[in-house]
Design goal:
Pnp Oxidase, Chain A, 21% helix, 173 residues, alpha+beta
């Protein structure tokens, strides 16, 4: 089934469920090489007068290299039937296997084909946000206002990079 673009203002979903409970896949790259990873931290809202998504990626994640090297990335939301694939994408590094896509039973697709926004996404998704990076910032321990967050979530001091990205297209099946 092909994707169609929809107006972001018509979306009706709970981001707390979509991101935290159902999870999403952060994907970046091109037809030559791409990677995807499961994420359950993130958000959506308005920043600088634009609809944005925030994504958080730890430095050791292979997908971070692809997000850093490209202007665009995608957030793909899948139905519950893909929970096993989401688990694979959250626990298997694309550095360590020949084909992470095959390992997860997923397929890359390329959205915004033939435009500067062309980037990798997940064919099995129900909804895809095509995102253009606006801002990236490493999280620093001295910026925590609550020590418990630092101690609980960063015992290895592998602080996330936060990305704020404009949602330039929303695609649905």
């Amino acid at each position: 089934m092909a994707f169609r673009e929809t107006d972001i203002h018509t979306l009706k979903f709970n981001p707390f469920d979509k991101i935290s409970k159902q999870w999403m896949l952060i994907t970046a790259g091109d037809r030559t090489k791409s990677n995807t990873m499961t994420a359950s931290w993130g958000g959506v809202g308005i920043m600088w007068g634009k609809p944005v998504a925030t994504a958080y990626i730890r430095p050791q994640r292979y997908t971070k290299e692809f997000v850093d090297q490209n202007e665009y990335f995608t957030l793909s939301f899948l139905s519950e039937e893909y929970r096993k694939a989401l688990n694979v994408c959250g626990s298997v590094s694309g550095r360590d296997v020949e084909d992470k896509w095959q390992e997860a039973g997923l397929h890359p697709c390329y959205v915004a084909e033939g435009t500067p926004e062309e980037t990798a996404a997940v064919e099995e998704a129900e909804m895809i946000f095509v995102c253009r990076k606006l801002y990236a910032q490493e999280m620093y321990p001295e910026c925590f206002t609550e020590d418990e967050c630092d101690a609980k979530w960063y015992p290895q001091q592998d602080y996330h990079t936060m990305y704020i990205a404009e949602i330039v297209k929303v695609l649905v099946k």
